[in-house]
Specification:
Distance between the termini: 31 Å
Oligomer: single chain
InterPro entries: Chitinase_II/V-like_cat, Chitinase_insertion_sf, GH, Glyco_hydro18_cat, Glyco_hydro_18_chit_AS, Glycosyl_Hydrlase_18
Protein name: GH18 domain-containing protein
Family: Belongs to the glycosyl hydrolase 18 family.
Keywords: Glycosidase, Hydrolase, Signal
Strand order of the largest sheet: 1-2-3-4-5-6-7-14
Length: 376
Amino acid sequence: MASLKFIHFLSIIILLTITAGSGCAMASLPAVKGAYWPSWSETFPPSAIDTSLFTHIYYAFLMPNNVTFKFEIPDSTAALLLNFATTLHHKNPPVKTLISIGGGGADPPMFARMASEAKSRQVFVNSAIEVARKFGFDGLDLDWEFPKDPKEMQDLGHLFKDWRDAIQKEAKSTKKAPLLLTAAVYFSVEFLWDEIYRKFPVEPMKNNLDWINVMCYDYRGSWDTTATGAQALLYDPKSNISTSYGLASWIRAGMPQHKVVMGLPLYGKTWKLKDPNVNGIGAPAVGVGPGDDGVLIFSEVVKFNKKNRATVVYDAETVSTYSYAGSTWIGYDDTMSTTTKIGFAKAHGLRGYFFWAISFDDEWEISTQASRAWTI
């Protein structure tokens, strides 16, 4: 298995080398050390963020009106937006701020309706730009999870083209720096495992986005309680549902490495073991473990491990970490797996990394290690 894994790794290196293109010219681009900030957090205000560890922070999330496609900002949200951008711009060091639109719990059909016609795209885009400027943000991020068919993927490409044109036009007329434009995307450029095959529109994405935030997590979870799983593994010897495969698929499809940012989870997925004595990755399970729908944020994982004297295992073959105590099994990333992933991203010329979500860390443990690993 080790030799097969080496061949797989070597093939990725060759692939990325071939597609490097203008890699030397892009070497001077600043790295992205990003993270999403959940706006519903009541115990983690923007003032608590250690900006020395990040370059870009995303306000998560904002949604337009599902009929007009305009952003209607109530006073409470306006106060949050203004405080977020102002606080992070005045921190030492300051960071760039972006408004992320959508999110995993958003309304995919709304995005589909909006993107389907030029007029509604224009309304949405102009309103988004207006909100970003009004509250002092540096950019906008789209998190549409996910276009459901080839037509919606095509419309997504039209949306990014219209959005970039509007950003350039606005910057020219106001003589301000153009807003950043990014998108959170599926771990793979293609949806190979769904009933409806579709592929992201790479050409308009690479031409109109500053970068993509690839969500390299949620490979396993509560939808399958029959076996434990590494939910964000770098390599999977048994399938192509892995971070290495997903990132390579984007680059193979033509997305430049300097426009690819790797996602890292600050949370784990939990299972209830069928037999506590059988406790590796893929061990038989009978349900989810502790946490909301089998999810524990990293700080909760640390507390669980300490309280229950859990056995912690770093799995080098998959580059993931898991712990178990009694019948509880947790798959997550720790400093070791995160460091290895950062090394992988740097070796393959990626632009940087981001976390979901910034408030889930434990005393900045993983965020600190990630920042150091990228700088080395």
